[in-house]
Known about the structure:
The protein is α+β, with helices and mostly antiparallel strands.
Amino acid sequence: MPNLPSENAITAFLAACRFNEAGLIAAIAQQHDTGEVLMLAWMDAEAVRETLATGRVCYFSRSRNRLWRKGETSGQTQALIDLRLDCDGDTILALVDQIGVACHTGRQNCFFQAIRDDALVPIAEPLIEPEKLYR
Length: 135
């Protein structure tokens, strides 16, 4: 994000968010220059605040029950270009510059399964083996 928002702007953004009963909001990551949808994850208020304050995308990991700074173990980071809130306030769109692959399976994005010939199949191969991502 070229210019990081002020604390007042961050507070206003957070006030407009409608977090669910678990204190989370859905966040869609989209590559800013191509429009490719990369992934869906969750953010809590702390993750939203950190993302806006640092310009590096941070999520909330439900499986680890803690903040998850995208790329902290894999090196595949997301630099924030813009953070947008939908009309209902219950979904965030993060326009990002994805460095490396977005998916933990080593694929460019997480949406690599589709129905083909009446079966659910992968339609994209990994660009990097997961073992190399998580040494």
